[in-house]
Target: DNase I-like protein
Amino acid sequence: MLQKTEIRVASLNINGFGTLARDHPENKWGRIYRLMCEHRVGVLMLQETHLTKERVYELHRIFADRIRIYHSEHGSNPTQKEGVAFVINKRIMSSKGAVLTEVVPGRAIQLALPWRGGETRHLLCVYAPTSEGASERRAFFTNLKQRYAESAGLVKPHLMGGDFNMTEDPIDRYPPAERSIDASAEAFDELKASLNMMLVDGWRKTHPTDKEYTFHRGSGDRAMMSRLDRIYVRPSMLRWMRGWKIERTGIRTDHSMVSVMMTTPTAPVTGKGRPTFPMHLLKSKPLAKRMKARGLAAAEEIQRIRSAGRTDTSNAQWVLQRLKRDWLEMARKAEKGATTRLVNEIQEREREVKNMGMNVDTPPEDLIKATESLGKLRGQRLQDKQAGSRLRHMVDGESPTKYWVRLHREVKPRELIPCLEKEGVILRSGEHEYETDPRRMADLAKAHFDGVQRDGPEVTTGDLREQDIAEVIGAIEMSLTGDQQTEMGEELSYDEAEKALKHAKNGTAPGLDGIQYEVWKTMHARFVEDARFEERSKFDVLAVITEAFVDVQRHGVAEGLSFTDGWICPIYKEKGELSNIANYRPITLLNTDYKLMTKALALRI
Model:
């Protein structure tokens, strides 16, 4: 199934900078980064940040260029008042080419951000006044509208989000306000109309009757809740937005995070990718038990084939293929079910809060308690993840491991190819024609790389070609002896397969089957361990692999199998047009069992 590539855009009032002291409850930025990674937030709009240039510099240093912060601070007292910021998660979104415009210092900033698909999106982050009440907000909204009207180079935003410190609908406030309509609402409506965002409060349009709040303060009879934090979009963009959410974050703030998945009409379309075996589950004892049982069944099937005879659909190759498929399915099911007690509790509390919000008869006090409890659970989860990350860093952070390399490598988002030029196709205008459908783009790439292997018109043919080949072969002085030729033609042995597995490199990307070398090595290590105890059942994965290799040598690759198929990944050469497939070098990922077979043959030489 194909879908548009999307970026989650979110907004959160963090109630001040906090501290950068490790494990301190007011250390907000460590949790902000963890929050962005866990929720896959590409762009986070922050309010009440109290940021300064020095603080931003320190944050960039701490997070090793994994985030990019654009901010605007209060003019006279930046560490105590106001402040707005954009935070780009560079794992998801590139900050290259981003341009910040300070609309109202400390209150409103706009970021022009290149989006996937070649378009630029203009995002406006707003923190409306609250200290002086509705009159100051009214003046702020009017001033903001005038700034856009008077600045010719200031593009109207596609999206506006932030803490507006007022509500537009009585349903968005508890207890109900004395005035049903905020005094600054008219000025706010005029601002939205001038920005082409009238009527499109995305969350409310998607959930017209639900009660959910983004601001919580007090408890019992003194409890206050309201939906102050919102995201607005142009009406024409609403169809390209989905997944509107209000979520407690676990960060020390009385606001919830609001977010939406955002895409564009020209954003590339992608599939789900290929599944791979979740490596962290190799140590799972329940999964190991199921994989062993499935392996024993495969070994028994091979014994039956030996007795009954081989067929095109019943042979060792198909046994190995089905074993790999079932192992991958087992692992993926185990991964979905491998949630901790805390995660299960969070999910249950999220469902409870959502159901309360949808029920008009829910007492507000119950909703407040459930929401506060959810926030505490999320805070505990973020704290646990931070502790786990620190432990990992203590173990691997100071030695030349893959973790260390990844830690110090520049973080870049996964770049997609938005379109490919159709080779040899020119429009009447003289321009090249481009393909944007991913399946047809894959066909174009395949045709190009296949064509690279074909002989050009300058290559000789017929008898002259045979003569050239014979001449080249005759110039080769090294040759195999008769015994060596016999040895190379022999069937692969168990020991050769074991030697190839021993020399296989860990951390190598798998092929289309999603099975890594580590899976084969782990299963073989378990067999070696079980072999020490007579009473244990034993599954020898290498025996199954060797049987499949021998079957390939005797009969060739069975029809319908993808044993030798490769998955081509085009890598940009860093020069030339991105839309020209000739500017990419193909990296082919092969199945690890096929690479084991070729490695075993290569070790004979």
The chain has a mean pLDDT of 87. Residues 364-396 form the longest helix (33 residues). The CA atoms of residues 50 and 78 lie 5 Å apart. The radius of gyration is 31 Å.
